[in-house]
Hints:
Elements: H1 54-67, E1 73-76, E2 84-85, E3 89-90, E4 100-101, E5 105-108, E6 114-116, E7 136-140, E8 152-155, E9 159-162, E10 167-170, E11 180-181, E12 192-194, H2 202-210, E13 215-219, E14 223-229, E15 233-234, E16 244-245, H3 248-258, E17 262-263, E18 267-270, H4 273-282, E19 287-291, H5 302-308, E20 312-316, E21 320-321, E22 327-330, E23 337-341, H6 345-364, E24 372-375, E25 387-395, E26 398-401, H7 411-414, E27 418-422, E28 432-437
Parallel strand pairs: 6-7, 14-17, 14-18, 14-19, 15-16, 19-23, 21-25
Antiparallel strand pairs: 1-13, 2-13, 3-12, 4-11, 5-7, 5-8, 6-10, 9-10, 20-22, 22-23, 24-28, 25-26, 25-27, 27-28
Helix pairs in contact: 1-6, 4-5
Bound molecules: ligand LQZAQKY5 and molybdate ion.
Amino acid sequence: MPSAPAPSSPAPVVSPLAAPAPAADSASSRSHGASSADRPASSPHAHRTGSTAWHAARALAERLGRAAPLTAHRLPLDRALGHVLAEAVVALTDLPSFDTSAMDGWAVAGPGPWTVKEGEGLLAGRGSTEPLPDGQASRIATGARLPADATAVIRSEHAHCDEAKRLLYAGREVVQGQDIRPRGQECRSGDELLPAGTVVTPPVLGLAAAAGYDALVAVPRPRVDVFVLGDELLTAGLPHDGLIRDALGPMLAPWLRALGAEVAEPRRLGDEAGALRQALVSSDADLILTTGGTAAGPVDHVHPVLAEIGAELLVDGVAVRPGHPMLLARLAEGGPCLVGLPGNPLAAVSGLLTLAEPLLRGIAGRPAQDRYRAPVRQEVHGHPHDTRLIPVVHREDSVVPLHYNGPAMLRGIAAADGLAVVPPGGVRSGTEVEILDLPWASASPWTEGCFT
Ligand SMILES: Nc1nc2c(c(=O)[nH]1)N[C@H]1C(S)=C(S)[C@@H](COP(=O)(O)OP(=O)(O)OC[C@H]3O[C@@H](n4cnc5c(N)ncnc54)[C@H](O)[C@@H]3O)O[C@H]1N2
Ligand code: MOO
């Protein structure tokens, strides 16, 4: 819990992985690893020693993830959902792999009327077929292999069969090749169907199976541990006697799942430095998130515990409101990273999107998000030095800022489509600002159990 005196700022943190702040609208850096050209991390807007500019903090988190990607595995299709392709999916066959009928009806060769061949006709999945001589027709089912020399398929409803004479008449003009799906129409063997970095969704599984795959080489979902700090937190019932409900435990796990992570049930550690230390050193997750305890109050244990276990602070404060006390650390050389989210709930969301989301994207090998901008419907006040993240809703071609956007409030974000990135000083009505979309509009892997 925060209290006076003000935090004695730790020494400026200049990580070997820190990079200069990219231009506000430039794409995140994709360079890997450390370089002497990559420093320092300080923002042109930062007014606190060690505070990193918002865009630089995001870029650094993503780069840190990309520098330590998770190992890819060969996964059977039924275990690959939600993972990220480490290799492109290349067609192992032509699709369709043979000329096939698109309709139930008749395969015909040459001009009609046609003599109907005897027998049950051509069914999907049946073995080899003889050529169809000119002037003949054979019953054919959707998906059946077309006999060699067939020139068209006539849908059953567009043909009339004189059973007595065993003659077939077309009810309308027959165009060569009609209702035939030619071999290779969708792809040729060797064509790239999906690039590396694609998230394995249900249709990706379907396409991979169709193209001949039994397994996919994919990066597993990063495993995340969430440690919720604070003695004041209740897990059920109404707030009472200065105690409040934990709003972050219930929110973060599904949010992280929506970002493609595998998340253990959040653990509540109270305000116990020892419990925090023990949880950090015994975690085997790829990323650890803590909530609360990032400031300098009497029971804000995150900084002291990180120092005690020899963690390297890579970002210690970001020039963003809310959420400026957020931090990013590496627990040990080659060890997992930790994102310290501030305890105020909207500040925690800010930390999640600023540091955890790009880091997860990096370690999972997901491509950089498409950035986009939209005009704001009204003037938005800015912070004098820091970026502001404001919950917004889309309205036609612009975004409308929502009320109840204070650091301790979730009412705005719960109704929002995204967060507007408001530069220091604010923006006038009509100014285009960067928008961070919330993941649930486009996909819903956050449904409990869906991606597990
Ligand atoms: N002297 C200073 N005090 C504070 C500063 C500062 O710069 N100097 N920064 C303020 C800002 S901004 C934030 S944000 C918070 C960050 O504080 P902590 O990360 O240490 O978080 P706590 O003190 O533990 O909690 C802050 C606030 O949030 C409530 N909280 C915590 N966890 C939860 C949860 N899981 N669900 C709901 N609410 C939670 C907690 O009860 C406090 O009200 O520090 C300011 N102080
Ligand atoms: O960063 Mo704090 O989030 O302003 O409340």
